[in-house]
Amino acid sequence: MGFSRRQFFKMSAGAAAVTMADGMLACAAPWTNGTQKSESTSPPPARQVVQEDRNSSKSTSPKTAAGGATSRGSFNPFKERGMPIDKQFRNWAELVGKPYDPHSVPAYTRTRIILMNGIEVEATLFSHQFMRHTNDQDLRRELSLTRRIEQQQQKAVAGLIPGEETTLEVVIGYEQLAVDLTAWLARNEPDPYAKQVYDFGLLEDFDHLYRYADLLHLTQGKRAEEIVDRLTEIMPGRPTKLEHRHPFDDVRRPVTGPTAHPLTNLQVLTLVSAEQQTMNYYMNVGNRPVESIARGLYTEIGQIEEQHVTQYESLMDGSMSWTAQLVLHEYNECYLYHSMMMQEEVPKVRQIWELHLAMELEHLRRAGDLLRKHDKRDPEEMFPQALPVP
Length: 390
Description:
The structure is a single chain. The protein is mainly alpha-helical. The chain has helices at residues 5-15, 46-55, 92-95, 107-131, 137-158, 167-188, 192-220, 224-227, 262-285, 292-313, 322-343, 347-374, and strands spanning 18-21, 24-27. The model is unreliable at 8-72 (pLDDT under 50).
């Protein structure tokens, strides 16, 4: 593993190179230690590259000082150096940052947080399932190591949602994410069959947002338009009463795999993770309302969310090896954190996306080593030379 249990507990106690700034996490360039290669022989750290990458559009030259990193589409996570694993552990104080202000937060900052919370939940759950399907103790230890970081990332991201927001207000954010994310994926999906599946589910997400918005106005006297910043149209979709299908009818044919477009592989995994998080959220909060009409709505829509997870996960290639799936998960996290960072409006939240990207680059490198060892495959063969444009 590269370090002792004594060193681990020292790191957990606060040796991770992060600082607190106004209650939020900030990265402190931990890769500049004596164990790293000199800057003249190794590429610059991820945060430097992506910072220069963000500013490159303002320059007349496509090249930057970071070894030729260009626009966002030229960022290759396999070529960048992330944060060493022994620098990634954070203590409790560092994980509990200052939540966003629900009265001023941009709507898409809220949906980014909801999405990345779901992505980290999926990363943790997948790692647990992987561990249950192997007897290789070295592999189990490696999964346990990176999983500890993934769950810390999940705590840091989830902690950005304030307790001041009611459960139903958070639900509006969940459904705004479902509508806008599914619409964006459908618009950019290269596989026509997957696009049809996304379009089908999108009509149902519209109705979920519409019905929860009605419930918010009925029970709290608030307008959902204020939460979504009027960026997402709140309108009826396919009536929920028509969404209950036979279980067989939710099973689609697989479209991902080694011959699929790389963007299709990433987008299916992203949507599965987001819908799974919504399903899990409703499973846990559906019994919190006092009003029977609210409890009934959570129960009904919660069942449809399970159907959506079934529908989207059935698009996935079930023959992919566990190690290949691990690489896909880690690459997708790099892709998404890079995308979130490039688009984030709130500087303190962007710092978290940058920090987590630096962590995920190292996770991807380690997952790639596992793929080479167990599958005798080069992980770079699974993906293009640069990240797809977010």
